[in-house]
Design a protein that fits this description.
The protein is α+β, with helices and mostly antiparallel strands and 262 residues long. It has a single domain, classed as Creatine Amidinohydrolase (Alpha-Beta Complex). The protein is 30% helix and 24% strand. It has 5 helices and 15 strands. Strands 8-7-9-14-15 form a 5-stranded antiparallel beta sheet. α1 runs parallel beside α5 and α3 packs antiparallel against α4. The longest helix has 24 residues. The protein is globular and about 45 Å long. It starts with 8 loop residues before the first helix and ends with a helix. The model has no long low-confidence stretch (mean pLDDT 98). The structure holds 2-amino-4-trifluoromethylsulfanyl-butyric acid and cobalt (II) ion (CO). The site of cobalt (II) ion has 5 residues, from loops.
Length: 262
């Protein structure tokens, strides 16, 4: 029994609320993703939106992180720090967002195209998102974290993509990063056993080229691909049950925005 990792119904409700707000915030950001806007402007939009909804940004101040969003463009995989870079047509941008409501964290991400993108990169986004859902299918009581990692890896590696190994998904609750670690690769039947009431974030980071990464030593945060090719990142938050994974994060608000742009 994993004390603390099993959430009560009351705790789950707070996590659901926090997660819902992340989904709405990502959609608010999505509305503004256009060539010319800077990642810092996106950050301000997200921060205002979260505060207006009575919550706290989950990332700001976390281990000294300076912003509300992680905005990781093209070869940046995760933990891109918002700055004066202006998006341009053909870019992709992973927007990762965190909130705190009543002490409980929301944390998830979506990678957006900026205008028209290279078809090869569009496929990378699509397949990375698919791999997230493959992983989610395995997020059931009695399974192990390695079942999730295997499912993710097995979906994307046959395309020749690189699965990032240095970073992983995680449990979530009163802390943004709780046990278990949820790797995006591995062997079935290995890792921590999942139990009903655990809440985990699954977040594949998949590179078009090599899986090798570089850590930015200047800003202390940003992780990029070693070959500078693009990388995709999608994250959902899931409650472990006996039968059907309950995805408490949502892309529905994002899809509503993207649909209206077509
Ligand atoms: N979602 C990110 C993660 O799980 C959060 C990164 S920014 C941080 O690593 F500063 F909040 F860590
Ligand atoms: Co996360």
């Amino acid at each position: 029994m994993q004390e603390g990792l099993i959430k009560s119904e009351e705790e789950l409700d707070k996590l659901r609320q926090s997660s819902l707000l992340v989904g709405k915030t990502l959609a608010e950001v999505a509305r503004h993703i256009k060539p010319g806007i800077t990642t810092l402007e996106l950050d301000k939009i997200a921060e205002r939106f979260i505060v207006e909804h009575g919550a706290l940004p989950g990332f700001k101040g976390y281990s000294g992180y300076p912003a509300t969003l992680c905005t990781s463009v093209n070869q940046d995989i995760v933990h891109g720090i918002p700055d004066h870079y202006a998006l341009k047509e053909g870019d992709i941008i992973s927007v990762d967002c965190g909130t705190i409501i009543d002490g409980y964290y929301g944390d998830y991400a979506y990678t957006f195209p900026v205008g028209k993108i290279d078809p090869e990169v569009a496929l990378l986004l699509e397949r990375t998102k698919e791999s997230l859902y493959k992983g989610i299918e395995k997020a059931l009581a009695g399974n192990r974290t390695g079942d999730i990692g295997y499912a993710v890896q097995n979906h994307v590696e046959p395309f020749g993509y690189g699965v990032v190994r240095e970073l992983c998904g995680h449990g979530i609750g009163r802390d943004m990063h709780e046990k278990p670690e949820v790797l995006n690769y591995g062997r079935r039947g290995t890792g921590m056993k999942l139990e009903k009431g655990m809440v985990i974030c699954i977040e594949p980071m998949v590179n078009l080229g090599t899986r090798k990464v570089i850590f930015n030593r200047k800003n202390g945060w940003t992780v990029s691909t070693a070959d500078q090719k693009p990388s995709a990142h999608f994250e959902h938050t899931v409650v472990i049950t006996d039968d059907k994974p309950e995805i408490i994060s949502t892309y529905d608000f994002i899809y509503e925005v993207l649909k209206n742009e077509k």
